[in-house]
Amino acid sequence: MAISRVKVAAAALTAATLAAAAVAQSNKSPESLLPPGFGEPVAQPSAAPQAGGPPSATAAPPATVQQVPSSIADNGTAPEPTPSATPTPDAATLAQYEMPAFARRSLALVGPTGMAEGGLAPDAWGNANGRFLEILMRRLSAPLPSRWLSIALRRALVSRVDTPRGLNGADFAAERAWLLLRMGESVSARAVVQSVDTGNVTPKLREVWMQAALATADPAALCPLTDAALRNDNQPGWVLAQAMCAALTGNPGEAQPLIAEARRAHLASGIDLQLAQKVIGAGADSRQAITIEWTPVVQLNAWRFGLATATGIAVPDSLYDTVGPQVTGWRALAPAIPLAARAAPAEQAAAMGVLSNLALVDLYGAIDAADDMPAVLSSTASDLRSAYAGADVATRIGALRQLWEGGTTPQGEYARLILTARAAARVRPIDGKGEADRIIAAMLSAGMDRTAMRWRDTVSAGTDGWALLMLADPDATARLGYGAVSGYASARKQQVFFAGLAGLGRLSSSDIERGAQAFDVRIGADNAWTRALDRATRDRQPATVLLLSAIGMQTGDWRGVPPEMLYRIVTALRVVGLGGEARMIATEALTRA
């Protein structure tokens, strides 16, 4: 298992390197950049829009860069006064008034989150080849098995960073946003696409912009691009978006003829057209009521999810079974979905890294305060309230146990640790000795490393809680000996514990060599992935290191991540200044082993 995962990552890197080296095909029309939305087969981009097809909700954008329009020629002569009406200014002239020069954003530095807001430094990608990065992003299978690596990668993707060499800044924003969407990070994806001025939007970014608007159930986000989209192509999604935007901006009289024309031209039919009409009906003075019938629908897509959610139409649970896990994150982040329907996706999204402990606690707090909630959810919310504010220690710890036992799957168990992190932090070490392992794991699932270190003198050596604290200690200076590792737990946990300690630099060189042989952790493996990761580490490229680390974790769960790969990832993150992320990934690996 371990060797196969290393080979998969190496093969991905080799393919990406070859593709980046073959970028001489600039005069050709490249194949579609975006993988199929929601597991549907990839549609090859056509030379012209297809009449009669469904709205372009999940279409793959072309891999071309938008051409700069040629300047308007000046004939050098002043026009003679005439009684005709004043000519309409061209789009470039209007843009000067809509977006003055001082307010325009450069494509050389793109992203919504600056360093002051927690983003990475502008040079986080260093001098990495832009095409190489794009190919890695496009081929990355998401979501990732690691909550903490997903959180760190999201931070890199939303950061305001320099556009890598060889790329258009808008196209690079599109690649970043598309990866975020596949990770379940719909809100972050929308923030990335909207960090580019509409005048600089390229065809590729325009298509990803539509995906982000639909994933966030925000059809109004399409409106700034509809006119430009229809000037460049006539895709059904944008034709219907023009009609929806007319209604949303208070012009229902313009919307109805556009919808009628779309119906006559067979641009859309069935539920896709009905949902667009439903959005139009939500506009002011529309006087239109539409009934949505899901019975004939066998496949959910972005168009159907986004417009149904935006208009308060519940999507049948059976249709959610037809889509990928990224939609779980979209559901958890959609405020229009009722609380009761959002609770289960929210827990899954927390385990994926999409939701924080605070967001999850807030959701259950709202459930606790609401009326007519399902009994199971009300019980969970009540247990959470008791875990925080029970009358005595026994009540609080009993409520924690009840919540932990409510996780019926490995992902659900980890989600319940996240849910209870701050409630667990309220338990004193002297009162919670019997549940020390799970209390420590819960705190670390939310990154509460210094709070967890209060338990250092409570836990016994060789227990899970002790091992987690050895990995999580933010102030560790002393190194552990080989004997401490060899006397801990089962074979799999020994491997993970050893890999984490070695990657964090908390074992001596001789103990690392000895442990690698004894625990069969092949930390000396050399392949395309390790070489690429080593180069990015040497060049101090934290964002590139995070992306390559994600390439190494393309598996369904932690059981598919080899310990030697964990060692490489933790080492690289520590060296490039992401020590906190390295420690949390190591503790998560042990918790979920």
Detailed description of the structure:
The chain has 593 residues and is mostly helical. Among the domains are: 1-20 and 105-167 and 178-185 and 479-593, no CATH class; 191-337, no CATH class. 53% of the residues lie in helices and 1% in strands. It contains 30 helices and 2 strands. The chain has a two-stranded antiparallel ribbon with strand order 1-2. Helix 7 crosses helix 12 (302-310) and helix 9 packs antiparallel against helix 10.
List the helices and strands and how they pair.
Elements: H1 2-21, H2 91-98, E1 109-110, H3 130-139, H4 147-158, E2 161-162, H5 169-182, H6 186-193, H7 203-215, H8 226-232, H9 236-248, H10 252-264, H11 270-281, H12 302-310, H13 317-320, H14 326-332, H15 339-352, H16 357-369, H17 375-389, H18 393-404, H19 410-419, H20 421-425, H21 436-445, H22 449-452, H23 464-472, H24 482-486, H25 491-503, H26 509-518, H27 528-538, H28 542-551, H29 563-575, H30 579-591
Antiparallel strand pairs: 1-2
Task: Round the mean pLDDT to the nearest integer and report it.
Answer: 85
Q: Rounded to an integer, what's the Rg over CA atoms?
A: 27 Å
Query: Structural class per helix/strand content?
Result: mainly alpha
Question: What is the 3D form?
Answer: globular
What is the tally of beta strands?
A: 2
Distance between the termini: 15 Å
Taking the sheet with the most strands, its summary is: 2 strands, antiparallel
Quaternary assembly: single chain
Percent of sequence in beta strands: under 5%
- The parts where pLDDT drops under 50 for at least 5 residues are 1-8, 17-84
Q: What is the number of helices?
A: 30
Question: Major sheet: order of its strands?
Answer: 1-2
| Share of helical residues | 40-55%
